[in-house]
Amino acid sequence: MEYTWDKEGAEAKKFNKIAIITVSKEYIVRRAAEMEIAKDFKKHGIETVMGTDLLPENATKADWAAEKMVKKLKELNVDGAIGVIAGKPRSTEMHVPGAVFDYPSPTYGYYDYWGYIFGAYNEVTSPSYTFDRQEMTVEATLYDLTVTDKKEAAIWKGGTTLSTTTPMKAGKGAELYARNLVDYLLQYKVIKK
Hints:
Blueprint: E1 3-6, E2 13-14, E3 17-23, H1 27-43, E4 47-50, H2 51-54, H3 66-75, E5 80-86, E6 90-96, E7 99-104, E8 110-113, E9 116-119, E10 121-126, E11 129-144, E12 154-164, H4 170-187, E13 191-192
Parallel strand pairs: 2-13, 3-4, 3-5
Antiparallel strand pairs: 1-12, 5-11, 6-11, 7-10, 8-9, 11-12
Helix pairs in contact: 1-4
C-alpha cells in the first residue's frame, strides 16, 4: 500500500461476512477484482459476498444507491464491506538513454612503463530505447456496517498504483492487488481472523 488511513481509535475487528464491491466502468475489472479478493479471504477462512453477484453488469444507477446496497447487505448478514475503486488504466512512455561502457582490450593488454601501468580499452555503446508503462490507481475502503452513523462507518482506507510494462490484464492485476490488500488487512490487524 502506498498510503493508508486508519480511523482514530479503531481496533481490529472480526467480521462474520464481508462484501467486496468494486466500482469500475469495466465489468471485467469489477468481476476479476472481486473474485481474487474473495479467493484470498477464503484462504484465511473469511466468508465474503461479491458485489457483481448483487450488482450485475446491467445494474442501474438506482441499484448502486448506498441505502439500497446496505439494506441488501444486512439481509445477507453482511457486517463489513470493502469498496474498491479502480481507476482507468493509463499509459506512460518511458525513455531509457543509451550508455557507453569501456572494457580492457584483449589484443593489447597492459604495459608497464617505469612503474606505470597503461592499458588499451575498447568502447561499447548501448542504444537508447522507449517503452510503454501501464499504470492503474486502486483504492480500497473498509466499512463496519454495524455502525449506525454512516459517517463513522469507514474504518480503514488504502491505495496503491499497479504498474507493468506489458498491457494490463484485469486478471493478473487483480490477483496481485488482492493478495496485497488481504495480506495488509490481516498482517496489520485491521481485520481479525
